Amino acid sequence: MNAINLYKIARFLNNRRIPFIPKLIKGVIFLLYNSVIPYTAVIGEHSKLAYGGIGTVIHSKTTIGKRVLIGQNVTIGRALDPDGVPYIGDNVYISAGVRIIGNVTVGNNVIIGANAVVTKDIPDNCIIAGVPAKVIRIIDHDIYDLLKNIY
Predict the structure, then answer these.
(1) Checking phi first, is residue 97 left (phi over 0); if not, alpha (psi -120 to 50) or beta?
(2) Is Repeat among the key words of this record (predicted)?
(3) CATH of 40-150, one of 3.40.190.10, 3.30.70.2190, 3.90.780.10, 2.160.10.10
């Protein structure tokens, strides 16, 4: 059992209008994994949290696509703008320690290097790294094959 499985249970119950248990599960995720993964966030199919999701913080209004791998100690949240929450596309690898902050769109088929700070939109098919994050390479193949071999 890891944080993503608990999230899925809480999301399922919340979508069925069961009010108390999803909040309880959110608290269990925090206690067991030191993570905030709200059941109101949208996380796509086949997405995973590395190391069970230790230290992961996801904003409650964030949308995360399919086949996204999120490393430990990652923050996906808003900046001071209350409407600005991140949107993560499909086939994305988010390395350990990454911060994705504000009204940011991360495209499809993207690799984000460790400890990068993403504050601006990221195009499809690239590798980004640094503080602030910059495109360091354009890629022309699907990273999904790489991701399924990692985890």
Answers:
(1) left
(2) no
(3) 2.160.10.10
